Amino acid sequence: MDKTLAGKVALVAGATRGAGRGIAVALGEAGATVYCTGRSTQERRSEMDRPETIEETAALVSAAGGQGIAVRVDHLVPDEVRELVARIEREQGALHILVNDIFGATRIEWGKTVWESDLEFGLHSLRLAIDTHAITSHFAIPLLLKTPGGLVIEINDGTEAYNGTRYRNSFFYDLSKAAVLRMGFALGHELKSRGATGLSLTPGWLRSEAMLEAFGVREDNWREAIARVPGFAIAESPAFVGRAVVALASDPEVARWSGQSLSSGQLARVYGFTDLDGSQPDAWRHMLDSEKGEVDVAAYR
Question: Which PANTHER family does the record associate with it (predicted)?
Fold first, then answer.
């Protein structure tokens, strides 16, 4: 990848695994310095209790050609986020790209109404999905605004076209994803007059570490799962949404997307990037079209 982001400083909040890791590594490939934050380190796991660590992500960023810096941060704790931003300013003097990719819920109570759900867990999942983004933006955006042309991306699950008219199978999950969409819209409004851009971005059916594990496959043989779940044919690697972020951050006219809800598959058609296998999967377009009748999955890669 061309070093289009050499000299740029990025913060990927929630870079331990999945989309966050894919985004951090893609930014590194483009030459950026990337602060990789999360709660899972070599010394201590978060409540997710998974093996991936922020140190691993930072090492992958550096191996890709950027500079990866791992910082353990609980984004629910304002003082920790404040110190993170102060450190970025001390060490780099600027912040050009902020990616809010924090969630970290340990489970989702699919199919349960608000009155059937575990209230304590449901409220905690909302804090993980919403409060973390608001706290991080509160402290990081003032530094980002010191340099014209900054970009803030809210990572979500689902586009406005899909989420806006469909129930996402859980009261608390539905609410959290609707809120992140609105954050992208609100930040677009607040940043546009200040020389920066805010928007929301979603990957499609993501082949995260947890998803591959659930399907009993690896990234190098993921297609074996299609026989059991045909829809998995539209799945995409974390690198794909990472390339979407790089395309946005490298676009001198990125302000045209201000406040919008975007997807990796949509942006691939605009900017021409591909997934690792050379395809351009468009999961959200596929899901919308498949509701109208049977479609050929191959037409959406």
Answer: DEHYDROGENASE/REDUCTASE SDR FAMILY MEMBER 1, DEHYDROGENASE_REDUCTASE SDR FAMILY MEMBER 1
Q: For residue range 57-79, list pLDDT tens digits in order.
A: 999 999 999 999 999 999 999 99
Between helix 78-92 and helix 132-144 the angle, nearest 10°, is: 30
As beta bridge partners, residue 261 has 200
Higher per-residue pLDDT: 47 or 208 = 208
Domain that residue 142 falls in: 9-212+238-281
The distance in angstroms from the start CA to the end CA of the chain is 21
**Residue 220 lies inside a defined structural domain of this protein:** no
For residue 87, the 8-state DSSP code is H
Domain annotation covers residue 267: yes
Beta bridge partners of 9: 33
Residue type (1 letter), 295: V
- Length of the chain, please? 301
Q: Is residue 217 part of a domain?
A: no
**Which amino acid appears at position 5 of this protein?**
L
